[in-house]
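Entry for the shared binder. Reason: the reviewer on the internal report wants the predicted structure included alongside the sequence.
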Amino acid sequence: MEGIMFDARRRQLGWLFFLLLVGISHGQGPATTVVTMLCFGLRIELIRWKKRIFNEASMTGY
């Protein structure tokens, strides 16, 4: 199980590094790119959280 988690984390970090390089190569500074990535990541987590809450509520009948 730990190997699977390590691979997933490594892929995530690789993807974030790739996005950082793309942002810098398109004229954004590293700080702007990092802030953009954080906002995007928080948005994705919020969507996942809402889906999980909705699924739990639908299973309980509320």
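Summary line for the report: The chain is about 90% helix and 0% strand.
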